[in-house]
Design brief:
This protein has a five-stranded mixed β-sheet with strand order 2-1-3-10-4, with helices on both faces. The protein has a five-stranded mixed β-sheet with strand order 7-6-8-5-9, with helices on both faces. Helix 6 links the parallel strand 1 and strand 2. It folds into three domains: 100 residues, Winged helix-like DNA-binding domain superfamily/Winged helix DNA-binding domain (Arc Repressor Mutant, subunit A), CATH 1.10.10.10; 102 residues, Periplasmic binding protein-like II (D-Maltodextrin-Binding Protein, domain 2, 3-Layer(aba) Sandwich), CATH 3.40.190; 104 residues, Periplasmic binding protein-like II (D-Maltodextrin-Binding Protein, domain 2). The protein is rod-shaped. With 339 residues, the protein is α/β, with parallel strands linked by helices. It has twelve helices and ten strands.
Length: 339
């Protein structure tokens, strides 16, 4: 069995020497003769015949000394059994080429951006991102893929890496691997959040002490995302747990799956507090559902960022990333098209 086209150099040889002649052969067979074929191919009748003979030479190892045309029909080009295999291959190439071009066109002309995001990022900013994106891209649409769970930062990175998402936004950003790029976004300030219906809201407008708040009400509970225990807020949560242990035991901490569930807990049970990113509760504060206060000492801000492929040429993706530029942290930003 002759060697396979398993290396780039052999594939290059095949494309340069065989595929071009197959195109001539297919056209000649459809035309019926070299004389009829030369008009559409801008080749002389002799050149058409020479092209077929060259292809037979290139495929000599595979043809085992055979030919591709019926040698009894000298004035016409009639395929024999081997020639029919070549024609079937040529037709398959045409079909696959059409599919390839259609896929490429659809991909490059699509106005959709697939976004893998944490729940809080999309719920806080999604409507604004969509509005800004529509202004930049006519008919533009953001298709969110909301990812949660214990290892959601790695899932979001994997979604961008394997192509199921165009870009990703996550907190607890993982270390990305090429060809991915990580762009830090502005850190999110963490605030102490109450239900507006809570009867013992802090009276001061400035920063409040968590110790003062929980000592004032021995029935107050805290709702947290279970990942908080490993985050910059871990110290605050551990402190709260230790301080309240004498009052309520282990049930004073409500561990839920995401920020939306934390907010739902605060709304449903006014005696529940939490520490949340300021932007994630902005709407509720404006509409009067929540009250939010800065903490003393101030917790570390919540880091988050954008993950995308370096060197992308898809304009909708480039435009979406540009929509997020107001959120970019100060400092160097890598060129979208790579270097």
């Amino acid at each position: 069995m002759p060697s396979r086209l398993a290396s780039p150099d052999k594939m290059d040889w095949f494309c340069r020497n065989v595929l071009t002649e197959i195109a001539v052969y297919q056209h000649a067979v459809i035309s019926g003769s070299p004389k009829a074929a030369h008009e559409g191919l801008v080749k002389t009748s002799a050149a058409v015949g020479q092209s077929i003979r060259r292809m037979e030479e290139h495929l000599g190892e595979w043809l085992n000394g055979g030919t591709l045309t019926n040698q009894l029909r000298k004035k016409t080009i009639q395929p024999n059994e081997a020639g029919n295999i070549v024609l079937a291959f040529a037709n398959a190439i045409l079909r696959e080429s059409e599919c390839f071009l259609e896929r490429l066109y659809a991909f490059q002309h699509s106005t959709e951006v697939r976004l893998a995001s944490i729940h809080s990022g999309w719920m806080s900013y999604g409507a604004k991102w969509q509005a800004a994106f529509e202004k930049r891209v006519q008919g533009g649409a953001i298709v969110p893929l909301l990812i949660g769970g214990e290892n959601y930062p790695q899932q979001i990175m994997a979604a961008v890496l394997n192509g199921s998402a165009d870009v990703g936004i996550t907190s607890y950003p993982p270390k990305v691997v090429p060809p991915l790029v990580f762009q830090p976004l502005v850190d999110r300030e963490m605030l102490l959040v109450f239900s507006a219906k809570y009867p013992n809201l802090p009276r001061r407008k400035g920063p409040v002490s968590l110790e003062e708040v929980i000592r004032q009400d021995n029935k107050l509970k805290m709702a947290v995302h279970h990942r908080y225990l490993k985050s910059p807020l871990g110290d605050q949560v551990v402190y709260y747990r230790k301080t309240r242990k004498a009052d309520l035991g282990p049930g004073q901490l409500l561990e839920v799956q995401n920020i939306e569930e934390i907010k739902a807990s605060i709304k449903r049970f006014p005696g529940t507090i939490s520490i949340l990113p300021a932007d994630s509760i902005a709407d509720e504060v404006i509409e009067g559902t929540f009250r939010a206060y800065s903490l003393k000492p101030r917790p570390k801000d919540w880091k988050w960022g954008l993950i995308y492929r370096a060197g992308t040429s898809r304009q909708p993706v480039i435009q979406f990333i540009e929509c997020l530029r107001p959120l970019f942290k100060k400092g160097n930003h890598k060129n979208l098209r790579g270097s």
